[in-house]
Amino acid sequence: MPPASGPPMGAGPYGPYPPVGPTPSSGSGKGKILAIVGGAVAVVLLVVLAVPLLLWMNGDSEDPRNTAGSGPGGSGASPSAAPMTPPEYQALLATVDKSVGDAFGKLGGAKSPKAVGTAVDGIEAAVEKQIEALSRVVPPPNAATAHADLLSALEGLSDSLAETGSAAGAGEVCLGSSALARLSRESSAQDVRAAQQALATADPAQSYQVGQFVPKKTSDSNRRLGNGKFLKRNRSGLGELKIENDGGTDAVINVVRNGSKSASISVYVRAKGKVTVGGVRDGTYRIYMTGGKDWDGKAKAFSRDCNFQRFEDSFKFSTTSSQYTIWTITLTPTAGGNARTSDVDPGDFPG
């Protein structure tokens, strides 16, 4: 039976593109009034200016400028406050670990760029809250230097978290696993580890513990499936879909029957790879594509550099007694291609 081929379809950006103001009069009484008022002002000024002198003479010699936390680098703790005892200080550090650690735990389960951004915002809020708490205390004397180092490291970590949130918004970081790996390699993470070690050895009688929330330094992974690996398949027809991925990243193609919210066919196509999907059942379909790096089989998504698109046109497959339909799509701009694509919110991408 000869095939009835559909027109070649282009895809882009990784991804499919084209389809395959009276002056007072002199001598009046106003001049006297003004003179009296002016004199009153002078008296008031003299009284006001005398206040600081009287206070100083009465023995209040504290200069407000010396209040802790009011100048650059001030800790916010009163200089007259008694240092915390080692147990009190360790209890505070434990609170830091729990608060920030719980927030980090939520990041690990993030399965979309939006979820990553939300989780990172939560960690950043927890870190800022603990920075404020640590800034208000006086640590045990032998832990003062390491305490200052910890504060500095946490401030740097807050900056790193903000950058990671921006990366998620740009699709550079798409899952919690890749966000954690990215954060684990930041210099701010290493600074927290250094402060952790310094606090652990600051007092021979008390090994202070903090910083357990920092993820272990991890390299990016690059997991891939084999070219043509089906994630989902429904073979009940004769139609064919030919896919050519001329792009530089792997992709997953989801074929969704009109009226359905889930894919009938989902296939992995490696960069520069070609796949022919046979057994497509007659009907009209929409085709969605996601591309990126490091395929997470559990999350069913790429963990880095992800993008989500769909063809704007539908694809109709039909079979007669003498012919069946073949469509060809190309996942890069193609000369002569006649298909347009549009971006899709990751949350609307059919599974």
Q: Can you summarize this structure?
A:
With about 350 residues, the chain is α+β, with helices and mostly antiparallel strands. It has helices at about 30-55, 85-110, 115-135, 145-170, 175-185, 185-200, and strands at about 5-10, 230, 240-245, 250-255, 265-270, 275-280, 285-295, 300-310, 315, 325-330, 340-345. Helix content is about 35%, strand content about 20%.
Question: How does this structure look, described?
Answer:
Keywords: Membrane, Transmembrane, Transmembrane helix. Residues 1-29, 64-85 are annotated as: Disordered. The chain crosses the membrane at residues 33-56. With 351 residues, the protein is α+β, with helices and mostly antiparallel strands. The protein has 2 domains: 3-16 and 224-348, Immunoglobulin-like; 86-200, Four Helix Bundle (Hemerythrin (Met), subunit A). It is built from 6 helices and 11 strands. Strands 2, 4, 5, 7, 8, 9 and 11 form a 7-stranded antiparallel beta sheet that branches. A 4-stranded mixed beta sheet has the order 1-10-3-6, with no helix packed on it. Strand 7 (283-296) and strand 8 (301-311) form a beta hairpin. Helix 3 (113-135) runs antiparallel to helix 4. The longest helix is centred in the N-terminal third of the chain and has 28 residues, at 30-57. 35% of the residues are buried.
